[in-house]
Amino acid sequence: MKILLTTDTWTPTVNGVVTSTVALRTELLARGHDVRVLTLAGSGRTFTEDGVTYLGSLDAGLIYPGARLRAPALNGALHALAAWQPDVVHSQCEFSTFAPARQLAKAAGAPLLHTYHTVYEDYTHYFSPSRRMGRCLAELFTRSICASCDAVIAPTRKIKWLLTGYGVHCPVEVIPTGLDLDRFAVQPDPALRRALDLPESEPVLLYLGRLAKEKNIAELIAALPQIARGVLLIVGDGPERATLEQLAEELGVAHRIRFAGMVAPADVPCYYALADAFVSASTSEAQGLTYIEALAAGLPLLCRDDPCVRSLITPGQDGWIYHTAEELAALANALPWGPAAEPLRQKARQAAAPYGRQTFGASVEALYRRTILDKTAAPRAARPKGVLLW
């Protein structure tokens, strides 16, 4: 098949959408498909390189940190992709590259699929003065996007339930993102541990991800005074870093926190290898790819309750779900460390096994084939339309 993947973000950006799209592209190529990517450039220049077409874009950091918007008048690049005649167009983002995805699918007579990666109602603080108003906007926006699609992929049941609640009528299939799990089977690096000033005698609680308000990292820091032992290792960067560093100082726990900053994707497994458990207070995850990475590295999870984690964690076997900062502290204090934790670590690795990249690729490939057959057999049925925003 000729498959076009469209996404607003691509490497070297590090986020869940990029991780998922890169994993999908890698596996589809390994399965013998012709795969191209349409994404945004980091500047106004449009170009194609190694099967990736970069559309010139404009800085939109006022909307969301690091965001970019597609520049106008880019028909040349889109005409070249239309002439290629993709069999499937698979969108990963709802903004700048979605309209071209829809246009290219229509021009080729190909089905348009979309993966819904982001729970926008958890990001209302960026675009709405009211959470209630923000949720209504997210619902209308989502319905308008999905009304154009032949099928939607939800990474978890949480997202499928959300889309059903929004009134999305196109077929929605749950397909978790798969990862290269073997890359997380690495040994701890003593030199890296020394560079981060992590005491050998202290357990390490790891948070890895974007430092943003919706990730609720402040709750992890607030729980630290109640946790008897251990260091909180925070890997990643984002707009909340200065606020979090200030909070650590105010609570008197700065000496027990290491802010490692952004690290190269290739080095990420080395940081998991240093930790004894993975912690997260986020309720904004569509799937939580870092949770799967942590399990693959043999780390038990301590995560705030959310539909996303209920299907991932078996409490007492590969982690625990908490509801308050006090409960998080109590669970952290009860965690086994060192050799006593090995049975827990083994079960964590087993819990990650269903999320391999090969399973992911096979499931998406099968959905592509079914959707192509459905579109060939009959035109897409009329569906209730949301509010078109363009």
Automatic annotation (TrEMBL):
Glycosyltransferase subfamily 4-like N-terminal domain ranges (all copies): 14-183
Domain Glycosyl transferase family: 191-351
Pfam family, one: Glyco_transf_4
EC number of the protein: 2.4.-.-
Main enzyme class: transferase
Entry keyword set: Glycosyltransferase, Transferase
Top-rank lineage group of the source organism: Bacteria
InterPro entries xrefs: Glyco_trans_1, Glyco_trans_4-like_N, Glycosyltransferase_grp1
GO MF, any single term: hexosyltransferase activity
PANTHER family hit by this protein: SULFOQUINOVOSYL TRANSFERASE SQD2
Protein name stated in the entry: Glycosyltransferase, group 1 family protein
Source organism phylogeny: Bacteria, Bacillati, Bacillota, Clostridia, Eubacteriales
